[in-house]
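Chapter review: from sequence to fold.
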Amino acid sequence: MRIRSLSAAAVLTVALGAGTLAAAVPAGAAPVGCRPTYPYNGAVTTYCSGGTGEHRAVCLYRDGGTTLKNFGAWVPTTSSSTTWCPPASMIGGNVEIRG
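The token string follows.
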């Protein structure tokens, strides 16, 4: 009987220790080294060189008096995201990150 109670205490101690270890590990860094490029008229491509998380390309354009946005797909760092805007209406582009 004493062996069983020691085993249960040992399991609890290991489980609590593992929980503490897992809690001490950081959740991950946001993407870093991100930049937009403009490979051709109306396009925005983004790339992030490190970190974890995801990023996507954002293209800004004007339709009448309204500024609108088109978004590329969310992709992991070291991958590229691309989106497109009407070339004559494009006013810029940038990178959105999450992570």
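Two observations follow directly from the output. The helical segments are 2-24. Residues 35 and 46 are 6 Å apart (CA to CA).
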